[in-house]
Amino acid sequence: GDDGAHYIATAIGSGKCSLTELDLEDNRIGDCGARHIATAIESGKCTLTQLHLHGNRIGDEGARHIAAAIVSGKCFITQLNLSGNRIGDFGARHIATAIGSESCLLTQLDLIANQIGDEGTRHIAVAIGSGQCSLTQLGLSENRIGDDGARHIATAIGSGKCKLTELYLSANQIGDRGAGDIATAIESDKCVITQFDLNANVVCDCVSEVISMAVSQRQNIGVVVVKSVTSRRWTRDELKAFLFLSSQCRWPAAVHLIITLLLDETIVQRKRRDCKR
Q1: Quick count: other Cβ atoms within 10 Å of Cβ 175?
Q2: pLDDT at position 201, please?
Q3: Alpha-carbon gap, residue 30 to 24, rounded angstroms
Q4: Is the pTM of this model over 0.85?
Q5: What letters, b where the CB count within 10 A reaches 16 and e where it falls short, cover 65-85?
Q6: Has residue 141 got a pLDDT over 60?
């Protein structure tokens, strides 16, 4: 808990500890414990480069302390895992301010399974698209991000200033509109993402299928969206969503050909079904 975190923090900030990686996952560390750890890592005597705090009880206040520490100019941490905590939009705003600073050395940030919504995502998006953020890997899966948050992220990754190569957004509340915005951004020549996960959101199957094909046209990109659904019939609502999405994206001729074949397959299936009636 917090008392134990205090003892550990005293040790790593003493100048006598040579640890470069510290794993405190799945404990009962709260905001008070996070404050002690933050004090240690900004002391100038802490040698940590990797800090794992997954599965604790750190909230917005604890996130604020850690964010202040990583931009102190005396922190050497490049990998920070805060997954599975209780960080919301307020905490996300402080973290965003930190990662948008030139004094922040973070290249990997994991915020999976917190309580971050569209507002917190907006602040993070502004930071990663600022040109001053050094992050190359960002995990935001299992939060409360919707279409508005996805739009902000899309703007950032398509800006030409974002350095992210890995982006994880699975298990949020992103729908067809938000997914389309992100797909369009990833397709852009200005986007450098090579690993992308949008699985388990509220995107209809046909849109997920088309997004998979569209972004897979980018060389060397690994896309994890949903399983293939080409063998099932698309509903009328799915087809409407597909038509809207295809009108928004600049997809190569090869993708348009695949889409046409899928659409023809659906039409044929419908005609066969109608004839049987």
Answers
A1: 17
A2: 86
A3: 12
A4: no
A5: bbbbbbbeeebebbbbbbbbb
A6: yes
